[in-house]
Amino acid sequence: MDFFTLYIYQPFFNILVGLYWFTGLILPSPDMGVAVILFAVAVRLILLPFDLIGEQSDEDKFQVSQKVKQIKKEFAADPVRQKEAIRQIMRQSPKAIFSEVFTITIQVMIILILYRIFTTGLEGADMHLIYDFMPAVHRPINLVFMGLYDLSHTNSILNLIQSLMIALSEIFHLYFSPVKPTRKDFVSLVIFLPVFSFLIFMFLPAGKKVFIITSLAFGIILRLIKQILFLTYSFRHNSVNETTPSTQKKI
Known about the structure:
The chain is mostly helical. Helices cover 77% and strands 2% of the residues. β1 (144-145) and β2 form a beta hairpin.
């Protein structure tokens, strides 16, 4: 057995089969689609510490936002230099770059694993890889999600939902970015990228699409939570700065 199968593929394969067994305890019958959703959430939770490592504190982000405002004033008449100066500030966090690269690498690796799982693995080719201590599951494994979507075959509806989620994720990314996006950024990320993804995933198993949809939804919710926390910090910080001068005058 090769290194990839033994130390990477087999553990993830068993986790997914275990989650499938678990869904049979909470649902009338086991559902692999629900197992994939739980699997995606578990992966994002495991990767969350790496996201937080690369994430700046609220105070750091506030200071960066203040610098960005200052740059916009200084280079108001020179949009090119303004954009480059802002990007220089954003590149000053190597931890964020490492975290993003690591997270993307793990996500791509898992997508490749899911491709094997849903093309041949769960249909019988890899059932011998289930650990002896795993609970017994009824075979053949039911690969129909919600009784509608066969996860081992492609599905246009899930593919469309995935593309829409990619577009929504990019809209959030551009909206909260300190660098004002250009029309080219919007067209390439919100229109071309989802369309390109739709074409690429058109012939791939639907199980991968359920994973990506869930992962994107998790990322959007996480981004909203971070933004709310940052806005709360900024509001409190600005309130303190506004009340401090009046307090000093009274003294």
